[in-house]
UniProtKB/TrEMBL annotation:
InterPro entries: HET (IPR010730), HetReg/Transcr_Mod (IPR052895). It comes from the Eukaryota. The lineage of its organism: Eukaryota, Fungi, Dikarya, Ascomycota, Pezizomycotina. Residues 52-206 form the Heterokaryon incompatibility domain. It holds the Pfam family HET. This is Heterokaryon incompatibility domain-containing protein.
Length: 565
């Protein structure tokens, strides 16, 4: 279920109201060969007692439609759903399927909200979830070769990916080459992993709760476990095949950070047959305790949703989406706007934990108008995620202790606090300037790190502007750091100055020589680089401009009254 507000002409209209309770409609898909017309009917049933399979797919362009026969009526559905039904249809016997666009009355807002609240249960009760990527455009040849080379690669990787290699994330490479795995054959794999399905926010729940998962592409089908084994193995090998690039790290993180968090016991999970995935699952259990915030904001960073409310609603089936009394933190209600949803969600979370305050991130003043300032944005991706190095409150913030006493009054959060310092001087935000409120904003936004990078290389550089803030603060309050240059450079890189001071110093000096003449002049006058002239080569090469741009995007440099920044 990805987009609940599709045009109504695309779906069957003659729906009878569902009974109260856990009722839905099951699609009975008539048998047929791949080229036969698609015929089906709808059967009202309790989803927790009926046997059925569920499909996971991308809705696609609503303007691209195909016709099927449903209940004897001609119904127009998206091309993607048409291809999905064609892929999973059995040639000789009917199949019982759950498909959101047909099984939900899309013109009934109440019914849609009910199904979104129960979506987790629907996918958890399915006998199997079929991930449908559609036609490969080559009569099934691309898909056939892709799945074959995935299996060949996995057989090779199994010899080298020991538990130690997996746990330590070490690189591996076969001693005797890759055999049948060639660049030419691997070209067929790229369309699989570049498919927009891997970017949908709803797929996280649809797969995370599944008992079994298969992936259908073209006229072929493969166990999804083999697909993810391939991704994990590929993510731990070097670039042995130049030109073969896909977002293996992105897809690997879907499992590491999201899919594994749905599971209590690996032996009951869809990946129970995978040694590789079970090792990675056990590793995830050794990390910090996962809260619903971790899931929501990690997903926000890597997935997409047309309706930003779905960054919450797509996870209502997650085990941690319920409070201690078993009630959902929020219920899907598409009559509420995003601002109302944010207030409701974080109001419900506040009595249990205030950890979400570490995720408040307003890049521009206009963002403050989109809802309560203490509620994190659900539709803005942060440059770093929760549990990062600079999280001010690692772990839970125990509001149950009593001294915090959080209370939500209307749209305001009231809470006790300790005052540790005061922000004194501020630089400007490393982001696009605020748009004119009288003008429509552009729909094509330049990536944040590109904007920040352009501000670093312009004249005067943003880094010079921040350095001026530092010097002004020093005149008024003095500074706490022994080496203000190294501390300043480390701040722009989001790192610690004692981790690799020599590499940081060399990279910053080179950056200043090119882009920051005033700072470079300071380094020269104070002989700052001479102290790093030890004859020892830097341990690492740090591309200062690019890394700093990634680190500071959407942020601003500030100093405090006690001389910190």
């Amino acid at each position: 279920m990805s987009e609940v507000n599709r045009p109504q002409s695309m779906v069957y209209q003659s729906y009878s109201p569902l009974p109260a309770g856990k009722w839905t409609r099951i699609l009975i898909l008539d048998p047929g060969a791949r080229g036969d017309p698609i015929e089906c009917s709808l059967h009202v049933a309790k989803f927790d007692t009926e046997a059925y399979d569920a499909i996971s797919y991308v809705w696609g362009n609503a303007a691209e439609r195909r016709s099927i026969q449903c209940q004897g009526h001609q119904v127009n559905i998206t091309t993607n759903l048409f291809e999905a039904l064609r892929q999973i249809r059995h040639p000789r016997k009917p199949r019982r399927i759950w498909a959101d666009a047909l099984c939900i009355n899309q013109s009934d807002l109440v019914e849609k909200s009910f199904h979104v609240n129960m979506m987790g249960d629907i996918y958890a009760h399915a006998q199997q979830v079929a991930v449908c990527l559609g036609d490969d455009g080559q009569n099934g040849e691309v898909a056939s070769v892709a799945f074959s080379v995935i299996q060949d690669y996995n057989r090779i990787a199994a010899k080298y990916l020991s538990e130690d290699v997996l746990s330590s994330r070490k690189w591996w490479k076969p001693d005797d080459g890759y055999g049948p795995v060639t660049t030419t054959r691997l070209q067929n794999v790229l369309p699989v992993f570049k498919h927009p399905w891997f970017e949908r926010v709803w797929v996280l729940q649809e797969v995370g709760l599944a008992k079994n998962v298969v992936l259908a592409y073209g006229s072929s089908m493969i166990d999804f476990v083999e697909v993810m084994d391939f991704v994990q193995a590929w993510a731990q090998t070097g670039n042995s095949f130049p030109g073969i690039y896909f977002r293996s790290g992105h897809i690997s993180n879907l499992f590491t950070y999201i899919w594994s968090s749905y599971v209590k016991d690996a032996e009951d999970a869809w990946f129970r047959s995978s040694r590789i995935l079970k090792v990675l699952f056990q590793q995830s259990l050794k990390g910090p305790k996962i809260e619903i915030l971790d899931v929501l904001f990690r997903a926000r960073h890597i997935q997409k949703a047309t309706d930003h409310r779905d960054f919450v609603y797509a996870f209502l089936g997650h085990p941690r989406a319920r409070s201690n009394d078993g009630e959902l933190l929020v219920k899907a209600d598409y009559s509420k706007n995003l601002s109302q949803l944010r207030l409701q969600l974080f109001s419900r979370l506040s009595p249990h934990s205030l950890r979400f305050l570490g995720l408040v991130f307003h890049c521009l003043p206009e963002e403050l108008a989109s809802g309560p300032s203490w509620c994190p944005q659900l539709d803005v991706s942060r440059a770093w995620g929760i549990n990062g190095r600079y999280e001010a409150c690692p772990g839970e913030v125990p509001t149950s202790e009593g001294w915090l006493s959080p209370r939500v009054d209307g749209s305001s959060l009231e809470v006790s606090l300790y005052l540790i310092d005061t922000i004194d001087f501020c630089g400007k935000v490393a982001a696009r300037e605020q748009s004119n409120s009288n003008q429509a904003t552009t729909t094509t936004e330049e990536p944040g790190h590109r904007i920040a990078e352009s501000m670093l290389v312009q004249h005067p550089s943003l880094a010079e502007s921040y350095w001026s803030v530092l010097e002004e603060s020093e005149k008024c309050h003095g500074l706490t750091y022994q080496d203000k240059v190294l501390a300043f450079a480390s701040t722009l890189l989001h790192t610690k100055e004692d981790e690799d001071a020599l590499s940081i110093a060399h990279s910053f000096a080179q950056f200043c020589e090119t882009y920051c003449p005033s700072v470079h002049s300071y380094l020269h006058i104070h002989n700052w680089m001479e102290r790093w002239d030890t004859g020892e080569a830097p341990k690492y090469y740090i591309p200062f401009r690019q890394r700093a741009a990634n680190s500071i995007q959407g942020e601003r440099f500030f100093t405090s009254a006690k001389g910190y920044w």
